[in-house]
# Entry
Amino acid sequence: MSSAITGTEEAAWASWEHRFIVANGIRFHYVTQGQGSLVLLLHGFPEFWYSWRHQIPVLAEAGYCVVAPDLRGYNESEKPRRGYDLRTLARDVAALIVTLGYERAIVVGHDWGGVIAWQVAMRYPELVERLVIMNAPHPAAMLRELRSPKQLRMSWYIFAFQLPWLPEYVLSRNGANEIGRMLRGSAVQKEAFPRSVTAQYQAAMRKPGALPAALAYYRQFVRDLPRACWRRQVLNFPRIQAPTLLIWGLQDIALSVELTRGLEPYVEQLRIVYLPESGHWVQQEQPEQVNRLLLDFLQKKVNL
# Structure
């Protein structure tokens, strides 16, 4: 399905506002549109708020206040040297919700944004009205599948990113061209990433400090793995009470579909929707389908 910009979207973009806010001690940039209940859109790697460009106007038109921040270290947000552990990243999101003046939010996350969203729902259940995850594993499933040769092979890049300076060099050379190649190359719907779009991501990653900050997510994750494995063996992950929608592009080359299985002990109300014609970048590869799923999930009474 084409992800070309529609006339409606183009007109809606004119009413987007770019703002800054200090939350959890750092300065975040975000894009916002609309009024109503808060929908917080959390992007992944190597992206920024722009990855939600197809969802922002649709959700705003449906009666929501949509906020798409640049996560810690990305694009126009502050890039501290520390704070890339999951506890701090979840606290960032909780602080954003409260500082924006809301008691609760609908939290939507893709990739690293989804990883953080799982954590927010577990650590701050009182702040999460509903949860939507797109191609991002629940921590229990990730710890389980990292024991499998299949997921280990698919996760090779996580371990490659542990090398000092070399990942930064490879990803930043030639105007960060590798960022565009990564997005386009791993997509099933290649037309979702024309050069005009990948140029936006390349420009964001060329900003001083952005690449080291983005890679710090992966480096901190591996440093925290021993403690996470201990937590998995000794403690139970808090059961998520918020109604949860999991959208999964089946042709993801980095995350296996096995990560979507066995989640019932960890999520009280869960619906899983698989998109066979999408890779990892679901909201950009299949925007119309994702938008329909979002609106259906958010506007209906919960009956999963």
